[in-house]
Amino acid sequence: MILTCTACAKEHDSGLPQTVCGDCGQPLQADYHFSTGQLSRDRDLADIDSLWRYHAFLPPLPASERVTLGEGMTPLSTAQLGGITVRLKDETGNPTGSFKDRGLCLAVTMARHYGFERVVLPSAGNAGVSAAAYARAGGIACRVYMPSTIPASFVEEVRGYGAEVILSGSTIAEAGQAMAAEINSSWFNLSTLKEPYRVEGKKTMGLEIAEQLGWTAPDVVVYPAGGGTGLVGIYKALGELRDLGWIDTPLPRMVAVQMEGCAPVVKAFSAGAADIDPWPRPVTTALGLNVPSPMGGAWMLRTLRESGGTAVAIAESDLQGARLRLAEASGIEAGPEAAAAWRGAERLLDEGWIDPEDQVVIVITGDNSRY
Ligand SMILES: Cc1ncc(COP(=O)(O)O)c(C=O)c1O
Ligand SMILES: [Zn+2]
């Protein structure tokens, strides 16, 4: 495994802890150089009820180093949306109730692998809870910087896992600025896309979706995008499966759904821009989507364009209705981010961008338990 810059392709040594590209500052991605026949579905999938089933697609490590709480292997359920049948990748059953567990599982495992005893990150909510849970499982310290506007339930849960919480600013970006001013190099920084392994954890959603669809890719994946790790991760995973010859269908059109009150990716996508501009005054109750200046903006935009996908912004006033329709159609008590994705799929179907014949997967990223 080599770590390659997603922008300039410069290679970085995965034997050392890495952050972002030493030349251009953009995110690094794990590169396995898979080719047809290199892995076999009979031999290289482990019979384990967690994302470690896909260990052959993850950084090579002894099994004893895995920090695991049984994350992943979530259902791909079926629901009716606007007269068509869609599939829901239901991430609410993860150990702390969201898909963040996949990314933090890998990131904390790798932090320990490199010998760090402390991890730190800014979080809009769910990622902080996940990081705290995995740090505790791995026996290392964790500090989470959160906006002071965060509902108390998130703070209590992070503290309940024994992590330290520092409240600062009103968005994840401002919490991140406080973090940057206070930490030193003894901390492994788990910020979205400032280390390469959260994407590796999140990409296992793409591997599971392909396996659950009988080793095919869907036509469309609808994803509520904040920092974007899952969006780029799912697409990366399906590309790896194609390189291996495990799937031979076209890759899906990837859709980023954001909120009208914080839509930097939608704006840059519509403008044909190569990277995002920071969103000036972000406001949305979908906290996971309140990310005004995502580090992975350029990577998300490339993924959307290369896949023939799109980006849509949802009105705040549409969230509640969408949540109820999602719950009625699926029985899932999802959080507002997933409700936004549901609404995005409804809109794209109405507009004809989604064809009734398309196989659509909507990522139901988290539950509603902390709102
Ligand atoms: C429930 C939920 N959905 C979606 C997102 C956005 O995820 P990403 O940052 O991978 O784009 C988050 C991020 O906090 C989240 O908690
Ligand atoms: Zn670079």
Describe this structure in words.
- The protein is an alpha/beta fold and 371 residues long.
- It has 2 domains: 76-96 and 197-364, 3-Layer(aba) Sandwich (Rossmann fold); 100-189, Rossmann fold (3-Layer(aba) Sandwich).
- The chain has 11 helices and 13 strands.
- The chain has helices at residues 100-113, 126-138, 152-160, 172-182, 197-202, 204-212, 229-244, 264-271, 297-306, 319-330, 336-350; strands at 2-5, 11-12, 28-31, 76-81, 84-90, 118-122, 141-146, 164-167, 188-189, 220-224, 253-259, 310-314, 360-364.
- It has a 6-stranded mixed β-sheet with strand order 4-5-13-10-11-12, sandwiched between helices. It has a 4-stranded parallel β-sheet with strand order 8-7-6-9.
- Strand 7, helix 3 and strand 8 form a beta-alpha-beta unit.
- Helix 2 (126-138) packs parallel to helix 3 (152-160).
- It is globular and about 55 Å long.
- The mean pLDDT is 97.
- Bound molecules: pyridoxal-5'-phosphate (PLP) and zinc ion (ZN).
- The site of zinc ion has 8 residues, from loops.
What is the structure about, briefly put?
It is built from 11 helices and 13 strands.
What is the average of the pLDDT values? 97
Quote the distance from N terminus to C terminus.
39 Å
Arrangement of strands in the largest sheet: 4-5-13-10-11-12
Strand content: 15-25%
Radius of gyration: 19 Å
Q: What is the percent of helical residues? A: 25-40%
Main beta sheet, described? 6 strands, mixed
The CATH C-level name of the largest domain is Alpha Beta
List the helices and strands in order.
EEEEEHEHEHEHEHHEHEHHEHHE
Total domains: 2
Ligands bound, unique: pyridoxal-5'-phosphate, zinc ion
Please identify the structural class as seen in this structure: alpha/beta
Number of strands: 13
CATH fold annotation of the largest domain = Rossmann fold
Overall morphology = globular
List segments where confidence is low: pLDDT < 50 over at least 5 consecutive residues.
none
Provide the CATH architecture of the largest domain: 3-Layer(aba) Sandwich
Number of helices: 11
